[in-house]
């Protein structure tokens, strides 16, 4: 497929601006969700979706070694965002779930995500929303190739 003259540069410019907008929103969200960094917030969001998660599953999700994850989780446990415990089924398996502050952060994260989605989709018709979502999904697939 041929890319029309000038479209490649327009695309890169729009993607750069989109990336900056997402980064800015992410930084704001991290701050209001408990002064977390992005990786910590991703971990809390992942656990919030699953309720109780094995440490190895979190390490796979954030694509980090278990030793790195242990350091992050230690900090989040100390700061009352997470609870860590051994599985009843297999004492070798370490699981993590949200503590009180983690639940509050996860709730705020979901709220911010909904606000952002409404900002973007709110002025579009249902058809336009579906088209945008499909095009973005296709874009993600194309970038991964």
Quick structural overview:
The protein has 145 residues and is mainly alpha-helical.
What would your notes on this structure say?
By secondary structure, the chain is mainly α. The protein has six helices and three strands; from the N terminus they run ααβααββαα. Helix content is 70%, strand content 9%. It has a three-stranded antiparallel β-sheet. A hairpin with a 7-residue loop joins strand 2 (82-86) and strand 3. The longest helix has 26 residues, at 7-32. The chain starts with 6 loop residues before the first helix and ends with a helix. The mean pLDDT is 92.
Structural class: mainly alpha
Average of per-residue pLDDT values: 92
Distance between the terminal alpha carbons, to the nearest Å?
A: 15 Å
Biggest sheet architecture? 3 strands, antiparallel
- Oligomeric description of these chains: single chain
Q: Spell out the helices and strands N to C.
A: HHEHHEEHH
Specify the number of helices.
6
Low-confidence stretches: none
The gross shape turns out to be elongated
Strand order, sheet with most strands: 1-3-2
Helix content: 55-70%
Beta content: 5-15%
Tell me the Rg in angstroms: 19 Å
Per DSSP E runs of 2 or more residues, the count of β-strands stands at: 3
